[in-house]
Write a structure and sequence with these properties.
Blueprint lengths: L1 E3 L1 H9 L1 H11 L11 E4 L3 H4 L4 H17 L7 E3 L23 H14 L3 E4 L2 H7 L6 H4 L10 E2 L6 E2 L2 H15 L7 E6 L14 H15 L15 E3 L44 E5 L5 H12 L21 H16 L12 E5 L7 H21 L1
Parallel strand pairs: 1-2, 2-3, 4-7, 7-8
Antiparallel strand pairs: 5-6, 9-10
Helix pairs in contact: 1-2, 1-4, 2-4, 4-5, 10-11, 11-12
Length: 388
């Protein structure tokens, strides 16, 4: 994904030729060696530089026209990251609407995304939602941590239970689009993270909270499900940010969102898979029971790969996890993939009594399942390249 700087949006929005030049210079000259799939036009334009709002959609349209002329419009999509500030009230999600100040622009913006098959880019910051809530929400809710029964967050209109503020914010954007009669536009979270250092008045900006948030964010995204209101639409996410910005203006926390110091050393450690929680004793896997009825096992495998939407491509003939070609091996791979994708939203490890939970080092599991776990981890690592 490449970005149009905020200071460039006005010029591009006023001139098709400037847009064409920008595409040739920043996209065309790097293809096909570089896999460019999207252009982010500005960053939070509506809320940070409102005087440019009137040319945001024209800028996007001119850039798209240049892509069409270069036959790149099917490969490269155009959108513009927006902050949660364009949504007047984000909770409960079911009543969320866009700020009426931007109704005309937002409508044109969404129409462009719909017409071009693009996606809504959203910057999601539970850190700000938590501190601005002034104690309304528990910090566990902001950090993807388990909530006690007395702290459950429920939308009273839909009765959806929200286990994280991240999911509630994403759903608020979906409901806001729905309020303008737009559907089918997927959301990509272009920024999300947590600061690890703040001033005396920023007590929640800590290394522990930043490490907890980003590790839990990775696990949440790799479940490959959407929020309660759109469970079938996974939320691809970019972590903000790789490096600290030591010269950035504003509060101390503004300089300290990075996973790395400016000298390249890590601030804290990230777990790169949805399976590894950082504590080997807590890792669990869903595998097929030995001795399970073969017909029931086959039915469970068919359901996991079909209605359960498990990723079963790697156990097809000729793919990395096809061997050993046994029902036990294939079912274990599919069961585990389904379980880890859906457990945060209620998915179980049962499959008609043919599955069981086990824990420990995957290398000590049966040989066929060790291969499946290895392949699963490889897939997750590849997805992590997208999440950052």
């Amino acid at each position: 994904m490449v970005g149009v700087a905020n200071e460039e949006v006005l010029g591009i929005g006023e001139s098709p030729s400037v847009a064409a030049t920008w595409i040739n210079k920043n996209v065309g000259s790097y293809l096909p060696a570089t896999n460019i799939t999207a252009i982010a036009v500005g960053s939070e334009v509506l809320s940070t530089i409102p005087h440019v709002a009137s040319v945001l959609v024209p800028a996007m349209s001119y850039l798209h026209r240049a892509l069409v002329a270069s036959n790149l419009n099917f490969q490269v999509k155009i959108s513009s990251p927006q902050s949660m500030d364009v949504i007047s009230r984000s909770f409960p999600p079911s009543t969320a609407t866009f700020n009426s100040t931007w109704n005309s622009t937002i409508y044109q913006f969404l129409q462009f995304l719909k017409n071009t098959g693009s996606f809504y880019m959203l910057n999601v910051y539970p850190y700000y939602g938590y501190i601005s809530g002034d104690g309304i929400f528990p910090i566990e809710y902001a950090l993807f941590q388990q909530l006690s029964p007395t702290k459950q967050i429920v939308d009273p209109n839909t009765v959806f239970r929200y286990t994280s503020m991240f999911d509630a914010m994403v759903d608020a954007a979906y409901y806001s689009m729905g309020a303008l009669n737009f559907s089918g536009i997927p959301i990509i979270v272009t920024e999300s993270g947590w600061p690890w250092l703040g001033g005396v008045n920023e007590p929640d900006a800590t290394v522990e909270n930043a490490e907890t948030y980003n590790n839990n964010l990775i696990r949440r995204v790799l479940n490959n499900t959407g929020p309660p209101g759109q469970p079938s639409l996974p939320v691809s996410t970019y972590i903000y940010e790789l490096f600290n910005e030591d010269k950035r203006r504003g509060p101390i926390s503004e300089k300290n969102w990075g996973m790395f110091y400016t000298n390249g050393t890590a601030v804290y450690t990230l777990s790169l898979t949805s399976l590894d929680t950082g504590n080997s004793s807590s890792r669990v896997f869903c595998i097929a029971k030995h001795g399970a009825d073969l017909k029931s096992l086959e039915a469970g495998l068919d359901w996991a790969c079909g209605q359960g939407k498990a990723n079963c491509l790697t156990i097809q003939v000729g793919r990395p996890c096809y061997e050993p070609d046994t029902l036990q091996n294939h079912a274990s791979f599919a069961y585990n993939d389904y379980y880890h994708r859906t457990k945060s939203s209620g998915g179980t490890c049962d499959f008609g009594g043919t599955a069981m939970i086990t824990s420990g080092d995957p290398s000590k599991l049966p040989h066929c399942f060790s291969i499946s776990i290895s392949c699963s981890k490889t897939n997750v690592d590849l997805q992590y390249l997208w999440i950052i």
